[in-house]
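Anyone opening a protein record will find just a pair of labelled lines. A complete record is shown below as an example:
=====
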Amino acid sequence: MIIEILCTGDEILTGKTINTNFGHISARLTELGLSVRWGTTVGDDRETLMEAFRLAASRADAVIVNGGLGPTVDDLSQEIAAKAAGVELVMSEEWLARIESFYARRNRIMPPNNKKQALLPAGAELIDNPIGTACGFAATIGKARFFFTPGVPREMRRMLDEQLIPRLLAMSGLKGVTRLKRFHSFGIGESRADEMLAGIPGLEDGGSVKLGFQSHYPQLETKLAIRADDEAALARLLDPVEAEVRRRLGNFVIAEDDQRLEGVIIDRLAAGGHTLAIAEMVTGGGVAARIAPQLAARAVFRRGIVGRDVAQVMSSVGLDTGLAAAGITEDAAVAVAQGLRQVSGASHALAVLMELDEGEDRLELGGNICIGLADPNGALARPARMLGGREWVRIGAIELALDALRRRLLGLQVDERIDFERR
């Protein structure tokens, strides 16, 4: 079965919005063994959209259209779909009621133009969108089945997994069950991970499990995709491969599947009845911003301090600022962590001290980082130096700090060398 992904919107075509939706849709379908042959981007123009719809209808079996389902005048997907299919637009009373209920639950009045989102081509199949007002739908145009999805990423992703993929698998005739196992790691790059996993039975060319990587610094996602006749066969093939990947990647695995690093940390703190305080500089509060907004963090997050330099951070935790004269040192990081633990009353304290090289931002520009950790079992420091430019170093320092805390909580080696540091 040939699949085309057709993304709409002037903001996508002009580059004002990065088209991450295409990458996500294509990756998910490829992981399931579905072939994406074409990818098209079209602006908000009726004539061009019609041409793109007709061309896709002539060369694909299934077309996923992303975007153009909103309430404004430049949202044209329903209108052009109806014209291309040779039918009228009709009001879906079912979806109109859903939109009205959506606004009523929020004590808001529905704007009149939102009624436009309930107009669908006659005979179209409604595809549920449980978290938004844009109505997904499916319609046949030419020889192809078109599936229309909203441009809002979280709405599209939910619809893709729950609604589109089952329909596409049924159309393709592919049998059996599928699974995607994901490992999230920090500290290793794609090349090193590939080397670490070389030779695992079942992952070699033609093996039953397909291995893939997706790098999004500072993390790396390692993916195992498999299809089998039934759940028992799937488990028999996947379980030993999954266990070996987990063993080989070892301490670098920070989370699995839908887990996130900050979630792992919060869960571990909560399980032990612990609390956390964070002090940081140069990161712009990025470490606390990963922890504090999480709903489960209410029970564990005690305090966050952001300073512009070492002296300010030390002053904030009751230390003599004269200690700052030595700069970013392991002793300073430990002292800040211990001071923070005392003044906050938290059981665990994380200090992130950093100084960036002077000069123009460039790949060779780096930063000296020192992580301090203090808890009921004592205190330690984790120094590192990273290169790659200001933003690269800042993001890396945030991830390094969270990973150091994770490792400490799990009793793992905190100072294990990572690919991103230079010593």
In short: The chain has three domains: 2-172, 177-256, 261-410. The chain has a mean pLDDT of 94. The CA atoms of residues 31 and 149 lie 20 Å apart. The longest strand covers residues 177-186.
